[in-house]
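Repro:
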Amino acid sequence: MTSVADRRRRAILAGHGADPDTARELLADPEPLVRVAALGALDRLGSLTSAEVAVALVDQSPAVRRRGLEATATGHDGDPASLLDDEDPLVVETACWALGERAGIDARGLLRLFGVASGHEDVLCREAAVAALGALGHPEGLTVILEALKDRPTVRRRAVLALAAFEGPEVEAALKRALTDRDWQVRQAAEDLIGDGREPGDRPVGPRFS
């Protein structure tokens, strides 16, 4: 068998050379890096199937699962919410991001996203979940976002940005409280939103991840 580097290169080149057959063949490679490259190649070619995404989402490698989630964020079938309880925090973070990129979310997925935002042990996962709730703008997400304003500084900053998708007295009150937050980035985010002269619901949501 050729080296991992050579097989990975073949997969990448297949995506640039209109060769879905080679990329599909390499989806079964024993090396995760090669499978990731093959998924990317098929996605680039517009040849990635729903079945292949489904297989990627249950792959033993976290890197492959993350690449499968990225595909669900760009229009491919698949349920990112199914990986919100993944053992790998980076997979959970990517699942949150993918959910925020999609047009909608069902009730079960929303509840699972609430759970990550309010209770996941990894701060990056909580931050990503709060960002996703802001991107989705679902009314039921507001309570969770407001509660996130009591979390770590990075989560609080993301929660302030997420408030841009909502409006009402409690949103205005939360933004005013954020002006006195002990973290300068949280204060700056609140100042930026309040200072633009628009109602919260009209403000654009800021970048989801830094």
